[in-house]
Amino acid sequence: MTWHPVRSGGIYTIQVDTSASFSTSFIVQQTTDTTFVPLINLPIDTIHWRVRCNSGIWSQKDVFIIQNDSVPLIIPITPDTLLAGSSPVFRWCSAVGATNYRIEIDSCGAILTPYTISFVADTFFSLLTTLKSGRYSWKVSADVNFNRYSITDTFWIVPSSAAEWNKNTLPKVFALHANLPNPFNPSTTIQYDLPENCVVELTVFNAQGRLVRRLVTRAMPAGYHRVEWDGRAQDNTAQPSGVYFYRIRAAGVGDNRTLYSLTKKMVMVQ
């Protein structure tokens, strides 16, 4: 959990709860940092959290979902990340209740025995085996019979010169572009630029500030991205004409941990 600092500084109080009213607040923590990592396993549920500085007003509450059947991948990330060198580093998010992980790396299109590394206690792994240039897929499973799998992502092992070419074509700055078309009926496309690998949340809100749809909630590679909103809510119900807002929040996964946040307005006319 990460937030922007208050200019005057102070003590931040974080509340975490499964209730939107924060009636139980099973985590109440104070810190001078702007990042908080729970030291206990969170329940499999919708988790609400908010923060305030000193005795000021609470921030707008935010939510995320803990699922028992996923192991989100972080690095490398799709689509088809280019990696220079032959011994990549893999990183993923922890799964609730897991103490060990198994990584499976396979060569796409080649008849080779997949690399399988079991009993990895941490959430990152440096592959010591040299990989030849080419396209690979990878996935992670958590213990408890290893029946909780991540999605399968892909990456390329390429010479350093190819990776440098790809780096030079990446966006120089973070950007959230105007949706097209606007006004729209019933769908529109949103484009955003990431100058570095980020964990991204792209959401749509109505004019009353209520969450309508989560369009992106995952790690994304540096590059130019676009996503379509079909004018429907999270439960697939069609939304009425009116003013809507789309907001992107992104956190870099590198050493900088740069934070980005932008909001724009769009209009649906039916």
TrEMBL record:
It holds the Pfam family FlgD_ig. InterPro entries: FlgD/Vpr_Ig-like, Ig-like_fold, Secre_tail. Residues 188-250 form the FlgD/Vpr Ig-like domain. NCBIfam families: Por_Secre_tail (TIGR04183). This is FlgD/Vpr Ig-like domain-containing protein. It comes from Candidatus Raymondbacteria bacterium RIFOXYD12_FULL_49_13.
